[in-house]
Amino acid sequence: MIQSLRGMNDILSDDYERFDYFIQTATAIAKRYGFHYVETPLLEETALFKRSVGESSDIVGKEMYQFTDKGDNDVCLRPEGTAGVVRAFIQQKLDKKGGIHRFYYHGAMFRYERPQKGRLRQFHQFGVESFGVDSVYEDALMIMMVADILKTLGIGYRLKLNSLGNQNCMPDYRVKLVSFIESCGDAICGDCERRKLTNPIRVLDCKNEACQALYTNAPKLINNLCSGCHSDFEKLKTILDQHNIGYEIDTHLVRGLDYYSKTAFEFVSDNIGSQSAIAGGGRYDRLIEFLDGKPTPAVGFAMGIERLLELIVMPEPVRNGYYFGAMENESLPLILKCAEKYRQTEKSVVEYEPKNLKNHLKGADRINARYCAVIGENERNSNSIWIKDLLEQKETIISLDTI
RNA sequence: GUGGGAUUAGCUCAGUUGGUUAGAGCACUGGUUUGUGGUGCCGGGGGUCACGGGUUCGAGCCCCGCAUCCCACCCCA
Question: Distances in Å between the alpha carbon of A381 and those of A43, A330, A334?
């Protein structure tokens, strides 16, 4: 038997019901917030991700599906959505056009990782990107939109918030932090040695107890923000307070992608195991110029759909549509004619095997049909069809001439 | 990429120190003698015990390999 590749799943039946319900819900909300759909290719030039996500990240360093195509191009299956949307934004010259551009998207992403619950090699994200808005109100809008989607789906969460600073304060802090780490000498673990070079802020999050003891007095980025970053962060907290959105400040929160600055946030669930981040995002004001566009402020987020699926509280299923059945072979042509007519406006399913009434009712019930329509000998003789409303438990017999 | 656990019917799981034709519940399917479901009763189909080797008179059970899932690490949505 040929099976799907490791970490790549089929989505069908109940899972697809949930998947589709999520997309419909999130799409409706994104539209209400004034966002427009954008579809970008699954395959992009490798350089796009190296320059946006960043070579120091694990995503680019070891998790990309990278290969050379038949035209000798170095290409990658997209590991995340933002880079492609930004490329499209620049390629369509929207950066030069100016103004505000708000997009949402959803689709498959690919990362070559060791799979576990909530972590797949092909997974799906729903995300939004906003271009051209410098105001921290837009950062708040992103967070409110995620909260809105999660609330609508009945999903509980905790919101973690941090500020990563910008080019004015981050580099200074980084120097400060690295010199602090160096002051710890050889006492730090091997992972931290590596992090010191690639992403120093991550050392603060080390699971090693000995490291944690050393870092209690480490400088915190949140205390080293420049005045602009500081006041924006304070303003963001005030806006969230005013809208009754709870949050916790997590000074260790770092986004895994290099392009983020200032606002960083992550929504986590405590009910789905260790892969607990269900949505993450933040501001990335420098990314457009990194990709040769005209400098444009931007902010966005992405949600991991598979991680949300089991948390979604689905609405009660409602009976709908018609089930058609014949009680003997002679009635089958009549039932097929009826179904053809009803199908123009109603969901209609036909059972081809003649059965007694009891089994047809069972069949209609099983597919959750609202109406069970049957033709037997009696109906055939009187040119009519028997229809039972399975919800109201009312029966009617109507003439075939009237349908 | 590193370490650990699991894998028996469509699903959730039993299966004794290695011993005849591998079981249950749910699901599916049929019947229930005059045409009424979701909730009665009776029956039926369905398993290369993940896969490949090995040990043994004999393997679902022991050993090795491999695949997938799960857990921790790394990292992330």
Answer: 63, 11, 12
Measuring from the CA of residue A63 to each C1', which nucleotide is nearest?
Answer: B75
Q: Which of A251, A285, A309 is the last residue of a domain?
A: A309
Chain A 135-164 contacts with nucleic strand B (CB below 7 A) = none
Interface confidence (ipTM) of the complex: 0.87
Q: Which 300-339 positions of A have CB less than 7 A from strand B?
A: 302-304, 306-307, 319, 327
Question: Which residue range forms the structural domain that includes residue A287?
Answer: 13-169+225-309
End of a domain among A250, A281, A309? A309
Q: Which nucleotides of B are covered by protein (CB under 7 A)?
A: 1-3, 28-32, 35-38, 67-77
Handedness of CA A121, A37, A99, A146 (dihedral sign): negative
User: Residues A309-359: pLDDT tens digits?
Assistant: 989 988 888 889 999 999 888 899 999 999 999 999 999 999 988 888 888
| pTM (two decimals) | 0.92
Report chain A's terminal Cα–Cα distance, integer Å. Answer: 49
A272 CA, B70 C1': Å apart:
13
Give, in Å, how far the C1' of B46 lies from the CA of A2: 22
Domain shared by A19 and A160, yes or no: yes
Contacts of A141 (CB under 8 A, 6+ apart): A33, A130
The total number of structural domains that make up chain A: 2
